[in-house]
Specification:
Layout: H1 3-26, H2 34-37, H3 44-80, H4 84-100, E1 105-115, H5 136-148, E2 153-156, E3 159-160, E4 167-170, E5 173-176, E6 179-181, E7 185-190, H6 193-200, H7 206-212, E8 216-227
Antiparallel strand pairs: 1-7, 1-8, 2-3, 2-7, 4-5, 5-6
Helix pairs in contact: 1-3, 3-4
Length: 250
Amino acid sequence: MQNKDIKAQITIGAILLIMAFAITVQIKSVSQNKSIAGTTNLRIDELLLELKNERDKNDELRMQVDAYKNDIDQYLKEAETTDNYSKILSEQLSRAELSAGMVDVKGEGITVTLNDAAGKRTGAGNVNANATLIHDEDIRKVVNELFAAGAEVIAVNDSRLISTSAVRCVGPSILVNDTKMTPPYTIKAIGKAEQLEAALNLNGGVIDNLKIWGFKIDIKRHDELIIPRYSGKVTYDIAKPIEKSGEDGQ
């Protein structure tokens, strides 16, 4: 295959990738569709119809994303067998997908399961309910400690954490990315299992502090953990890439 054919192939693959991501970010969460939630004057049957239409659109978009991804995979496989430069580009794309959380991953690591504590008594003999609950800040502390100890990939109840992820409190539940969660919370971390466990179990560390409050905590090592890819949407409306110009990239 000639070099121009290879370059054309790579260009097509790149265009398909861009289209796939463009479609992905257009997929709207039905549960958060503001137009449906805010239309209080519509009759119930009209709301249900609109809800069904949104779901059908989302299903169609997901099918298109899968189709584009299959096309990209085929172009990459063919490019890898025809040119070393194409193989390098394929490897760079794979690393980018891994860093962005767009692919399922596996590897050794640990799971940390956090659960609410039994009821604590105040001086008046009443249960201090707030002190018995796992809060968003407790999960963040564990996650931060794991990242600091060398964890490469982390998920909370199989919700993959990426650079734009947030763990915050929403009423009686905790919101991770766009998913509401209730206890128990299972944190999966891929990395050197022994190192991760040791970091959590330091005297006076995050786990010791949680145990003081009576929270139920279970830590297990695993020879292989599977963490699914990020399933939400990523949009960049303000941030734009800086295009390099000139030989020195300035």
